[in-house]
Amino acid sequence: MIPKRTYLTINDDRIIIYDKREPEEICFNEVKTFECEIIRLWRFNIPTDEIIAHLKNGNGYVKTFSAGGLTVKPQQLCDLLNERLSEYKKMK
Fold this sequence. Notes:
With 92 residues, the protein is an alpha+beta fold. The protein contains 1 helix and 6 strands, in the order ββββββα. β5 (47-55) and β6 (62-66) form a beta hairpin.
């Protein structure tokens, strides 16, 4: 089994996630908060760290991406993203 790697680029106004074939962007103007959660894969019952972006549009609408394979711990990444989000909101 080949491990899945996630790569992130954190900008002032968005993050770019490289974990699939197409890069995905999450703009900070769409996000309320970021949250770290451990999710178990139903097929293998393996815990994986996921970062959840709670979006402003819609009740409970979220985008998730894997934090597995990153060099930073998932909670530290989540704290960093929330810090960047609050800085973005102050600038806006």
